[in-house]
Design a protein that fits this description.
Strand content of chain A: 25-35%
Helix content of chain B: over 70%
Strand order of the largest sheet of chain A: 6-7-8-3-9-10
Number of strands of chain A: 12
Distance between the termini of chain A: 46 Å
Order of helices and strands of chain B: HHHHHHHHHHHHHH
Order of helices and strands of chain A: EEEHEEHEHHHEHEHEEHHEE
Number of helices of chain A: 9
Shape of chain B: globular
Number of domains of chain A: 2
Distance between the termini of chain B: 29 Å
Oligomer: heterodimer
CATH class of the largest domain in chain A: Alpha Beta
Largest sheet of chain B: none
Number of helices of chain B: 14
Shape of chain A: globular
Structural class of chain B: mainly alpha
Structural class of chain A: alpha/beta
Number of strands of chain B: 0
Largest interface: A-B, 43 and 31 residues
CATH topology of chain B: ABC transporter involved in vitamin B12 uptake, BtuC
CATH topology of the largest domain in chain A: Rossmann fold
Radius of gyration of chain B: 20 Å
Strand content of chain B: under 5%
Helix content of chain A: 25-40%
CATH superfamily of chain B: ABC transporter involved in vitamin B12 uptake, BtuC
CATH superfamily of the largest domain in chain A: P-loop containing nucleotide triphosphate hydrolases
Number of domains of chain B: 1
Chain lengths: ~260, ~350
């Protein structure tokens, strides 16, 4: 089967500084791939290139078989949705209004949202467990609640691929757990997920595959067991850890060695 | 939300429209010569529905006052109030900042400079009177562009840099206006009075002059109202939701300049309408621009007809420039907003 995402020979520069060099990656339909690596290793930049917010220096990105470079933002937004670390909320739109904005790429200029759009938004909010927040102003929600609304907004786009940039960065562990469980359910439903995650244990537990990135290059790609090794972590993060096997899940997890 | 939007459109808009009509009729009856409402309605009847086709309908003094003095002025107040309010809504969305308005961010001064130049030199150049709105529009466009690029840091427009660059650009343009006024001492009074903002001695010609600009400006704003909603979530987010934000920004900057420029060209500098009206309307009906824009237009129209009626009646037969009245209302309101919303606006 055709991969949902294919990145070929991708290089990105900010000014003259190389941020991403010659990255190659392929994501199968319905898979959950987590990108891990130190800060400043080009993970966010990769996501921004896939969502066409910035233009790569070289390389081609295919989403669902088509090159995204000539694609309009509108058509791309029907295939790819993004969940940023944080969102700006200067005005008091209600959570439902925010989720409805996710329908933007499906509506023509003078078209108002219809019953179908409302149902899609409602499904998305129920999926993200935030339907009860629908009438609350977005700028009065907690960090975890707001992030669930933004995920619902992304789902309302009815994407085939969802990109998440450290979606749990500012959340407590209870909220982190909720978001990750949601991603697990979405993945089980067949949505393809590419997420930058900063917590290796969470990444190893939830993702199908891990991609280890350092200084703009891919160091290794593979199953959690293949990637989360003492050797890899010493090489990429420069710290010594002990990797153990979780007695219940069989997934690897790291323990800091002091 | 779909149904809520329809409900609001179906109830709030007709209600405001009705209020506007009532305001127009009442404002036409109030003044140095008091004309009973019945006379106004009768005159309106004979002018429109009851028009018999016979020559010279309504040559009486009262008819003349209604149709040639008061009504053009009321209609112009309506158009200017609506323009300023809509320009305010769009500016606030564009700058992602509820403290912006064409006056505070210096755009009106840009329009003012354009209009001043046209007033002082236009006749010498031999252009028609369309030169004033066109020049005001160009001035407003230049000022918007300047302030936007000065105030933007990292894709956002924070309130501090917005107000600072607005003050800088506004002061610069108003300094040039003062300079031009000093050089042309002979025309000083007309320019001064015009700058203070007022509707005195305006006729149907002025109405006809600004209508095209205002119509295009409002249509552009409405066409990009969904984009305005999405833009409020930040530039990058708007990209991710499939909006071509650079194009939307350009269109909206043109819309603000058309509206603010047209308003300034016929009524001078009337401040705070673009700040107060969007705020009040947003409090009541929420931030969705598709309903916020038309409602603000109607409320802005009603507000300016009301303040202009005050302007020409409180000290009658003398007249206060309406800009002074809106500033008297607006400045305390602005200070209140700064105090109470400071934290959420940083």
């Amino acid at each position: 089967m055709k991969p949902i995402l294919e990145v070929k020979d991708l290089s990105i520069e900010y000014g003259n500084r190389s941020v991403v060099s010659q990255m190659e990656l392929s994501l199968k339909n319905g898979n959950f791939l987590a990108i891990v690596g130190p800060n400043g290793s080009g993970k966010t930049t990769l996501l921004r290139a896939i969502s066409k917010v910035l233009k790569p220096k070289t390389g081609v990105i295919y989403v669902d078989g088509s090159d995204i470079a000539p694609l309009s933002r509108r058509s791309l937004a029907r295939k790819v949705a993004v969940v940023p670390q944080e969102s700006l909320t200067a005005f008091s739109f209600t959570a439902l209004q925010v989720v409805m904005m996710g329908r933007t790429p499906h509506l023509s200029r003078w078209q108002t949202e219809g019953a179908l759009d409302y149902d899609i938004a409602k499904d998305a909010m129920q999926m993200a467990n935030c339907w009860h927040l629908r009438d609350r102003p977005i700028n009065e929600l907690s960090g975890g609640e707001k992030q669930r609304v933004i995920i619902a907004q992304a789902l309302a786009q009815e994407p085939k691929l969802i990109l998440l940039d450290e979606p749990t960065l500012h959340l407590d562990i209870g909220q982190q757990f909720e978001i990750m469980e949601l991603l697990k359910r979405l993945s089980a439903d067949g949505l393809s997920i590419l997420a930058v995650l900063h917590d290796l244990n969470i990444a190893a537990y939830y993702a199908d595959h891990l991609m280890l990135v350092k200084e703009g290059r891919i160091e290794a790609v593979g199953s959690p067991q293949e990637i989360v090794t003492e050797n890899n972590i010493r090489r990429v993060f420069g710290i010594t850890v002990e990797v153990k096997k979780h007695s219940l899940t069989g997934k690897p997890y790291i323990v800091f060695v002091v | 939300m779909a149904s809520a939007l329809k409900l609001k459109n179906g109830v709030v808009l007709p209600l405001l429209g009705l209020m506007l009509i009532v305001t127009i009729i009442i404002a036409s009856s109030v003044g140095a010569v008091s004309i009973p409402l019945a006379t106004i309605l009768g005159s309106a009847w004979s002018k429109t529905v009851g028009f018999t086709g016979s020559h010279v309908v309504g040559t009486g003094t009262k008819d003349f006052i209604i149709w040639q003095i008061r009504l053009p002025r009321v209609v112009l107040s309506m158009l200017v109030g609506a323009s300023l309010a809509v320009a305010g809504v769009v500016t606030q969305g564009l700058f992602k900042n509820p403290m912006a308005d064409p006056y505070i961010v210096g755009v009106s001064f840009g329009g003012g400079l354009g209009a001043t130049v046209a007033l002082l030199y236009g006749a010498a150049l031999g252009f028609g009177e369309f030169l004033v709105p066109v020049a005001a529009l160009l001035g407003a466009l230049g000022a918007t562009f300047l302030v936007y690029n000065l105030a933007r840091t990292g894709g956002r427009v924070p309130v501090s840099t917005l107000i600072l660059s607005g003050i800088a650009v506004g002061s610069f343009f108003s300094a040039i206006i003062s300079l031009l006024m000093t050089v042309h001492g002979e025309d000083l009074q007309s320019v001064v009075f015009w700058l203070m903002g007022g509707m005195a001695a305006r006729s149907w010609r002025h109405v006809g002059m600004v209508i095209p600009f205002i119509a295009v400006g409002f249509a552009l704003a409405m066409a990009f109202s969904r984009e305005l909603n999405v833009m409020v979530m930040g530039d990058e987010r708007a990209y991710q939701l499939g909006v071509d934000i650079e194009r939307a920004k350009k269109v909206l900057i043109v819309a603000v300049s058309l509206l603010a420029g047209a308003a300034v060209s016929v009524s001078g500098l009337i401040g705070f309408v673009g700040l107060i009206i969007p705020h009040v309307v947003r409090l009541v009906i929420g931030p969705d621009h598709r309903i916020l824009l038309p409602c603000s237009a109607l409320v802005g129209a009603i507000f300016l007809i009301f303040t202009d009626t005050l302007a020409r009646t409180i000290l009658a037969p003398a007249e206060i420039p309406v800009g002074i009245i809106t500033a008297l209302f607006g400045t305390p309101f602005f200070m209140y907003l700064l105090r109470t919303k400071r934290n959420s606006l940083a």
